[in-house]
Amino acid sequence: MSEFIATFHTHLAAIMADRQLKALGLRSTMLPVPRALSSSCGTAVRYAADSAHIDALGEDAERAYRILPDGKKETYELLYENE
């Protein structure tokens, strides 16, 4: 199982994605977007799954990343981008 983080164009889109992921039985949580991903304010959803479940994130998902543990810090692999 991998850890993922998704960013969104709107706060409401993050709420809806969090609900959809939980409906799929996945553990997810909403959090501020990490500074390593964006300097702007925003809400992200972090979740654990066997795949990124891009289809469950909704059309207002901005980006999805796989979280790669790197010692004491995390690095991120971009998996999806919707501009």
Please provide a written account of the structure.
This protein is of the alpha+beta class and 83 residues long. It is built from 1 helix and 5 strands. A 5-stranded antiparallel beta sheet has the order 2-3-1-4-5, with helices on one face. β4 and β5 form a beta hairpin. The relative contact order is 0.30. The mean pLDDT is 93.
Features:
16% helix; alpha+beta; five-stranded antiparallel beta sheet; globular
Instruction: Summarize the helix and strand pattern as letters.
Output: EHEEEE
Helix/sheet category:
alpha+beta
Number of distinct helices: 1
Radius of gyration: 12 Å
Large-scale geometry = globular
How is the biggest beta sheet arranged? 5 strands, antiparallel
User: In total, how many beta strands?
Assistant: 5
Name the helicity range.
10-25%
C-alpha end-to-end distance: 28 Å
Strands in their spatial order, largest beta sheet: 2-3-1-4-5
Q: Report the β-strand fraction as a percent range.
A: over 45%
Mean pLDDT: 93
Poorly predicted segments: none
Question: Helices and strands in order, then pairings?
Answer:
Elements (H helix, E strand, L loop, with lengths): L1 E7 L2 H13 L3 E6 L10 E7 L11 E10 L2 E9 L2
